[in-house]
Amino acid sequence: MTAHLTRIRSRLAIHAHRKVRGLLEGEYAAIHAGRGIDFNDLREYVRGDDVKDIDWKASARSRQLLVKRYVAERKHTVLLCVSTGRSMAAMNDAAVAKRELAVTVAGVMGHLAVQHGDLVALVHGNAESCHSERPGGGDLHLERLLGSAYDAIRPDGPPGDLATLLRHVVRTVRRRTILVVVTDETALADDAIALLRRLTVQHEVLFVTLGDLDPTLPAVADRRLVDIDAGSEVPGWLRRDERLRREYAALVDDEAQKLRRRLDQLGIAQEMVRDHDDAITAVFRLLERHRHARRR
Amino acid sequence: MWTREDTGFQWPWLVVALAAAVVVLLVVWLALWRGRRPAAGSASYVAHAGRLRALPRYRTLVRRQVALGACLTLAALVAASGAIVVAGRVQERQTLVQSDRTRDIVLCLDASGSMAEVDRQVLREFRTIVDGLQGERVGLTIWSGAAITIFPLTDDYQYVVDQLYEAEKAFRDGTVISDDYAVFTAGTVVDWDIQSQLGDGLASCVQRFDRRDEDRTRAIVLASDNEPVGTGIYSVPEAAQYAADENVVVHGIAAPRTADRPPAVREFRSAMARTGGTFSLLGDDSSAGAVVRAIDSLEATPIDRPPVVQVFDRPRLGTTLAGIGLAGLALVWAVQGGLALRDRRGGAR
């Protein structure tokens, strides 16, 4: 039952050994705009904590930087917004499926929220239907959310449509949330941009993009590849072409940059996630960038 | 002489069946190819691959692949058609219509000086006739006191024509004083007291026929003036009887001056009649037509033999087609491999 979350925890544990213990937590705590005023306790400063929270007197006494922790005045909600179009069932790279990665990213965010005592909700959907899961706390709830998102992504499902999903969020979510959009869109349509602009007013929007398997990758040259959108095979004879590989890489880079610029214009922090290890770093960078972007 | 009759398949039904099989296979393959769905089992999914199709390089590669595929298909079809042709066994039928006019003609010329003019005409006419011969064999024997063979029976007509021309040249002057004549007729006179022996000459010519066991029409064109000097071994009736016994038809051509001696003409005519041949007396005008008629009148008994048929396999067309097809296949594959290798290495140029 707790398969997804266990895996994510173990990944986080591995990550923590790389001398960034607490880093994510600090970053996560800092994204909340409003903080409670009731002082709870002190803890050691970790990078990413807001400098304003440092208790200078206590730090001077204990000869280490300590930050004040407050009891949050109310519980925040992290809304995981996962696109479940059929393209999400494809491969991310030679080894990892995109839905695994989507669940990992959503799981890291959810795990941080759960650890922090916040609520986690889920919206997932595609061009045909959208589903919402009520906010809740606890590992079990998170695991259920991850499971339903994972199961909703099927190779024979309808195509993904970010605008529909965002419209669903606009229509159904009343409260202010930390909205984590996990999608694999390569470009944003105008209606999606308008919706994102609308959502940034209400939510803290974090945007995670998943990459696609490069069909011209030498690692998959001997594998049969099926274009999940068209349902046809990507012929093997052209995937070894070096020039095609370069042209494709240039195109993908170009699209990624355009997307990033678009989201920058909207003031939305965006990260491209490429693999499982990258997922945790990406979440960290996302939180950091978001904090900085908002400060501006 | 072998004549080509017709070229065709030994097993036309196999050709049709194989061609039909190829067409059926093509149709089935096309249908399967059209209706194919990528099996999800072993394949990996990739999303947003549509971007790949928008690339100019993709379109170039597809165009190239289509062209190569078309060439491959063409080469394969050519190879297949070659194989089908080989399977059908192209055969050529040749028939040998055996010479139906198996005449053996011996020109039997009196080489005595008085006959030179007649001999020349006979030879010249005969030379034109030889061109139209088919299957006949011709020999030339001249005699006076003794007979000598200028050439034996042969169907090498080129040789015959050459020899007749030589002989004609020797008799051209119509006199006995030329060197050509002396050389040509050397040996025909052993004893000056015995010359122009018609009986001996005829008997010698009869002996010139070979292949006695074969059923051939044998004829002698005998030109003489029947003016013997001295006494020979055979008298004219004896020689005629000998010819008749050997089933040789003798056609006589008498020189114009023979008419001056009616007993000689009579003897000559009766001898020819005994062998069943004709006798003609050349007029003073020495008309060539008489010689021609005399020779043409030689009956050619057609021999009814079944034609010999031989059948050859002619695999060259099929193997050539198959070879071209296979070479094309190899070529296209080589080109494809070369291009793929170049592209894989980077094509950075």
Task: Please give a handful of descriptors for the protein shown.
heterodimer, A: 296 residues, alpha/beta, Rossmann fold, 2 domains, 6-stranded mixed β-sheet, two-stranded antiparallel sheet, globular, B: 349 residues, 3-stranded antiparallel β-sheet, 10 strands
Strand tally of chain A = 10
Q: Name the CATH superfamily assignment of the largest domain in chain B.
A: von Willebrand factor, type A domain
**Mean of all residue-level pLDDT scores of chain A:** 82
Most residues in contact, chain pair and counts: A-B, 40 and 29 residues
Count up the domains of chain A: 2
The main pleated sheet of chain B reads as:
6 strands, mixed
Q: Structural class from helices and strands of chain A?
A: alpha/beta
What's the quaternary structure here? heterodimer
* Chain-averaged pLDDT of chain B: 81
In the CATH classification, which architecture of the largest domain in chain A applies? 3-Layer(aba) Sandwich
> Which term fits the overall shape of chain B?
rod-shaped
H and E order of chain B: EHEHHEEHEEHHHEHEHEHEH
From the spread of the alpha carbons, the general shape of chain A counts as globular
Beta-strand proportion of chain B: 15-25%
Trace the largest sheet of chain B across and list its strands: 6-5-4-7-8-9
The fraction of residues in strands of chain A falls at 15-25%
Domain DUF58 (chain A): 41-255
Protein name (chain A): DUF58 domain-containing protein
InterPro entries (chain A): DUF58
